[in-house]
Amino acid sequence: MNEWDTAALAAADKKYIWHPFTPMGEWCAPQHQPLVLVRGQGALLWDSDGQQYIDGNSSIWTNIHGHNHPHINAAIRRQLDRVAHTSFLGFTNPTAIKLATAIVNLFPADTLTRVFYTDDGSTGVEVALRITDQYWEIKGQKRPTLIAFRHGYHGDTAGAASLGAAAMFQNWRSRWNFPVRQVGSIAELEALSRKDEAETAAVIIEPAIQAAAGMKLWPAGTLPALREWCDRAETILIADEVMTGFGRTGRMFGCQIEDVIPDIMILGKALTGGYLPLAITLLTEPIFFAFARNSLDGNTLFYGHSYSGNALGCAAALASLELFEIEQTLAHLADKIRLLSEELETLRHNRQISEIRQCGFVAGIELRPSDSPRRGAEICLAARRRGLLTRPIGNTVVLMPPFCITPEQLRQAVDAIRNSIDEVCGI
Ligand code: PMP
Questions:
Q1: Where would a tag sit more exposed on the chain, N or C end, judged by fewer CB atoms within 10 A?
Q2: What are the pLDDT digits (tens) for 371-422?
């Protein structure tokens, strides 16, 4: 007997819940049947009616080693038996200390040396902005301008949204957002005047690939050129690795592809293997030291959250890092990235597709413009009927499953996309 009453769950959901980034009128309409996910194993998920799916977008880009992984499960349980959460304001805890040490040790000595804990990508970016702002104030330099790349996305809190989401979702005039200088390319950045350079507080970029923009790849050389520009302007380079971090690009971090070390790096999503909300803002010692050098009033960062340094999240993150060693995740991933390329190759002749972009284990399959603005969504719905869950970005179908996906499942996922495009667009 099915343990779940799908109709009752759907009715209660529609009655009590407001979902993110969701037109709730449509969601609550009688004909809409929400998918109720109840179980996961590896790259697979099951709904409340027992239907099986491939997790084609890694549960909104978070999962890497698979669902229900015994190593991460055990680590969380061990932590749970000790204590789930204690305050990080005024206290510390061994799991957060161990994780911070492990994260810093992933980078060359004396580069990114300090960990600030937050809860998700947005708050990780938010604190990076607060730190940047206060840093220049402490240094006595007037650097009011933040620079971000057009079409970039860095989260939804007011500061993070000012960098990108506000422009992307056209709520630029909202009083929640502050002006940010948007540039489209390195050339545009290099065209700025010396005065503009001197007024720049920081430049933020999603290394390797602009994710929410539709999985758009940066031209080779972008990040080193940006590093050079920031060095010349003596300003801060912030790398938002919320999506690219922890193997997604094929390297542990997107910045490593072109051997660049930023001054601030934000990690979230896959940090806990996709288990729990936790983020890290990593910083260099000189930035930290400006705050720590003395205890003057203006040198304390008055920022933090109730769940900072949450021990369960840190335990999951440590276990996820251990798995990279135990399972040789990146070595195996290299084979799967190749297989993904081969499978995507079989879609290239499809007349409905205008471009296929791949960066590591992320694919963006862009559809030709059509009469229907919802083509991407229609295709993802058709893919769901074929056992693949993913979410489009406008006209781009995204495929970025957990790294543990089997070759067979990966082929099935690409087949589901191919057949769904044929079904929706006609062959
Ligand atoms: N930065 C990037 C590059 C992202 O892709 C996202 C989320 N998609 C965020 C920040 C915001 O992260 P979160 O949703 O965890 O707040």
A1: N
A2: 888 999 999 999 999 999 999 999 999 999 999 999 999 999 999 999 999 9
Pocket test for ligand 1, best of 21, 151, 153 (most atoms within 8 A of CB): 153
Q: Is 46 in contact with 37 (CB distance < 8 Å)? A: yes
C-alpha separations of 381 from 9, 39, 65, 386, 391 in Å: 20, 20, 25, 9, 9
pLDDT at 57: 98
Please, which pLDDT band fits residue 341 given cuts at 50, 70 and 90?
A: very high
Q: What is the DSSP string of 69-131?
A: -HHHHHHHHHHHHH-S----SS---HHHHHHHHHHHTTS-TTSEEEEEEESSHHHHHHHHHHH
- Residue located nearest, by CA, to atom 5 of ligand 1: 243
Cα of 195 from ligand 1 centre, angstroms? 31
Using the mean position of ligand 1's atoms as its centre, give its distance from the Cα of residue 182 in Å.
18
CA of 211 to the centre of ligand 1 (A): 9
Look at residue 346 and tell me whether its pLDDT is greater than 90.
Answer: yes
In 3D space, the residue among 369, 373, 375, 387 whose CA is nearest the CA of residue 423 turns out to be 375
Which of 60, 61, 122, when mutated, tests ligand 1's pocket best, judged by the most ligand atoms within 8 Å of its CB?
Answer: 122
Which structure tokens are listed for 113? 């040396």
Geometric angle at alpha carbon 203, from 197 and 204, rounded to 5°: 170
Nearest Cα residue to 365 out of 336, 400, 402, 337: 400
For ligand 1, the distance from its centroid to the CA atom of residue 80, given in whole angstroms, is 27
